[in-house]
Design goal:
The structure holds two protein chains of two kinds. By secondary structure, chain A is mainly α. Chain A is about 75% helix and about 0% strand. Chain A has a domain of about 60 residues.
């Protein structure tokens, strides 16, 4: 591990790589700060520039954009009360009131240092957890992998606020899109309708840019009047950050920082669940744990710390999933997965052992990106104030053309630009009809993996019960089922339904069964522990008086 | 017909798509000695998509989304005006690309689209022209000279 880390340091700290990362961080900080521009869009737009680079340079640049974007989202949240990205929504709750009370420097400082520490905590966990999780991943057979993909799709759908069916449809539609063209196993053409260009299927990048960037831009520009105005009205002068005071406050609120960072990490580990969820969850948990919850929303430091540390920590969790299992932890890592496949590298449980320098290089680059973000934030704040004076339609139309140039460079074919246009229209239609895009992208990315593993399973054994009887496969089925019913549980909890109290207990019991079937005393012990805990919780809940429905 | 809301129409369109695509799975070439035929996976997906679409249709009919305003083409066009302009101009850009090449077609796309959306007063036209030449020219130069990507030149300039 040490030798690999040293080699990775060599690769990441090469002058060329450092320069590319710095450009990436600056681009991420600015893109993340512009309301309406998501981090995914920024990473997607950076992708075409990385084709000519080595894998480590390309991924370092994208990591720079990713980490920079996570921090950049706070500028607009704090200074004007409009979240720069969905990952900075909760930053607005306390960052903006703090700025209005005359402490914008403190709010920005808190956000910056909380982002930095959150990123560092998750980077440390990334270094240690990714190889361990990859070792577990080596136990997976094709049945388990197939079920893992099913779980990834169901959880992505269940996290689509109040639109489970639409999320599932989007995920399955993504699988359908991925099945177009010659299949990877037998080479037979599918759904090509005689078009030669469709023989190779839809390239991943034009689909992704079409869905995320193209449709998002047109959605933002829908309002004719606001598209013509500068993105941020009024004059905002550059603010001096209060670094010392911010660091002191963060150390005073170390428990908030730790709790929120681990919430961010956990959300990042869940397939397709990103920082847009973690920042709100961490804020909510911090408010619940606080002795003064009434201060939240008035400009209290823990509110800013919770949101900013959790959203940056999510990146580490998402990278763990991508490197250890080849499953994207969020939309950005789905793009990175695509970038790796462009370089003929397929992340899987063997990724860390077969590509150690690249794998550890990603970890080192993630560490470094956090430091670079810390250094470059003040400069980026000035660029942010300049860029946001440009009307949205000017920037939007230019970016549309950049998208076209970017996708053309992938295969040097105009067919990819047509794909971009078609999926831009599909993406806009989906967004306007309430269909989430993330499950669809996940379906496109994981479709070939699911088919390959289904084929491998069926060619290895005719026994279909293996999909349900192998411990890991059963574990993922349990996770998938409980994630499907999660929205139902949420609404039952709000309605005060009695059965909702036993949802968690039910999950523990069901998850304990496959754990006890696994090899090794630790997992069996964990299964037994879960069963005992579930029994204890059930008894406690039954003893309590039944909740009255209001 | 009163109950045929937007969700129901989407669900019906999805079901029609599933039906058409399911029919085409019978045209997929059979590969001898393959463990899993090339048609199995698409059929599996289409069956799943059909089931979900039926559930979606059922829900959209039993629990229709609240109707705030009656549908009107004029309002729809106004709401999607910018998107429609961009799509139309992008389509024209794609059709002109083989003849004018990336640089010229790109500059024209940016200039005309910005002018249609933002207005065409002389001052605005000058601003849009400057932005389109600098932005597209700059990006074209980066890809052509720095990244050594051969972008379409256009038949008119060969």
């Amino acid at each position: 591990m040490i030798e690999n880390l040293i080699n990775a340091f060599d690769a990441v700290f090469a002058l060329n790589n450092l320069m590319l990362m710095a450009i990436g961080v600056l681009a991420g900080l600015v893109a993340g700060s512009i309301p309406g521009f998501t981090i995914t869009m920024a990473v997607v737009l950076a992708l075409p520039f990385t084709f000519g680079m080595s894998p480590i340079e390309g991924l370092s640049t994208m990591l720079g954009v990713y980490v920079g974007g996570l921090t950049g989202g706070m500028f607009a949240s704090i200074l004007i009360g409009v979240p720069g990205t969905p990952s900075a929504i909760a930053t607005t709750f306390d960052g903006f009131p703090m700025a209005r009370k005359g402490r914008p420097g403190l709010a920005l400082g808190l956000g910056l240092w909380a982002s930095f520490f959150g990123g560092l905590i998750s980077a440390v966990v990334l270094v240690f957890l990714a190889p361990t999780l990859a070792a577990i991943g080596l136990e997976f057979g094709p049945w388990d992998y197939f079920m893992l993909v099913c779980f990834a799709l169901t959880i992505a759908a269940s996290l689509s606020e109040g639109a489970l069916i639409k999320g599932l449809i989007a995920g399955v539609f993504g699988l359908l899109v991925a099945s177009v063209g010659e299949d990877h196993i037998n080479g037979a053409a599918r759904f090509t309708f005689g078009f030669e260009s469709l023989g190779a299927g839809f390239a991943f990048l034009p689909v992704l840019i079409g869905l995320f960037a193209f449709s998002q831009l047109l959605n933002d520009m829908s309002d004719t009047e606001s598209a013509k105005k500068p993105m941020i009205a009024g004059h905002h002068s550059a603010v001096k950050m209060e670094h010392r005071k911010s660091i002191a406050l963060i150390f005073l609120n170390w428990l908030t920082l730790l709790r929120s960072s681990f919430i961010g990490l956990f959300i990042g580990l869940l397939p397709a669940a990103g920082s847009s969820i973690s920042n709100i969850l961490a804020y909510d948990q911090t408010k619940k744990a606080s002795k003064t919850p009434e201060d939240f929303g008035q400009g209290t430091p823990p509110g800013v710390i919770a949101s900013e540390s959790s959203n940056n920590a999510t990146a580490g969790g998402a990278l763990i999933m991508m490197m250890a299992l080849g499953i994207p932890g969020d939309a950005v890592t789905a793009v990175m997965l695509g970038a790796l496949t462009i370089h003929n590298i397929a992340p899987s449980p063997t990724f860390i052992s077969t590509q150690p320098v690249l794998a550890y290089g990603i970890m080192v680059a993630y560490f470094l990106a956090n430091f670079m973000t810390l250094i470059m934030t003040s400069g980026a704040l000035r660029v942010f104030l300049l860029v946001t004076r440009i009307p949205l339609y000017i920037l939007g139309v230019v970016i549309l053309l950049y998208c076209a140039i970017g996708v053309f460079t992938l295969n040097n074919t105009t067919f990819d630009i047509w794909t971009l246009l078609v999926f831009g229209i599909i993406g806009l239609a989906m967004v306007k009809n309430g269909f989430p895009l993330t499950p669809m992208v996940l379906g496109v990315v994981l479709g070939p993996l699911a088919e390959l593993n289904l084929s491998r399973s069926l060619s290895t054994s005719d026994d279909l019960t293996l999909f349900f009887m192998r411990p890991w496969a059963l574990f993922f089925i349990v996770m998938a089922l409980f994630s499907v019913f999660f929205p139902l549980y949420q609404s039952a909890t709000k309605a005060g339904k009695r059965w909702a109290q036993f949802y968690g207990v039910g999950f523990m019991v069901c998850a304990a069964v496959p754990m006890m079937m696994m090899e090794g005393s630790f997992r069996t012990g964990l299964g037994v522990f879960l069963l005992v805990l579930a029994a204890w919780l059930t008894i406690n809940k039954l003893r309590r008086p039944q909740l009255q429905n209001p | 017909m009163k109950r045929l809301n937007r969700d129901a129409i989407t669900a019906l369109l999805l079901l029609v798509l599933c039906g058409v695509l399911f029919r085409t799975t019978f045209d997929i070439r059979e590969v001898p000695f393959s463990e899993m035929g090339s048609d199995v996976w698409p059929r599996f997906i289409l069956i799943a998509l059909s089931i979900l679409s039926v559930i979606y249709l059922f829900r959209s009919v039993t629990k229709p989304p609240p109707v705030t305003q009656a549908f009107s083409w004029a309002r729809w066009f106004k709401a999607y005006q910018n998107a429609l302009i961009c799509f139309a101009m992008f389509l024209v850009f794609l059709l002109l690309l083989p003849y004018l090449g990336m640089l010229v077609a790109g500059i024209l796309f940016v200039f005309i689209t910005q002018s249609i959306i933002g207005g065409y007063a002389p001052k605005q036209l000058l601003f849009h022209a400057t932005v389109s030449v600098l932005a597209v020219g700059g990006m074209w130069s980066i890809f052509t000279f720095a990244l050594r990507v051969v972008l379409p030149v256009g038949d008119l300039f060969r």
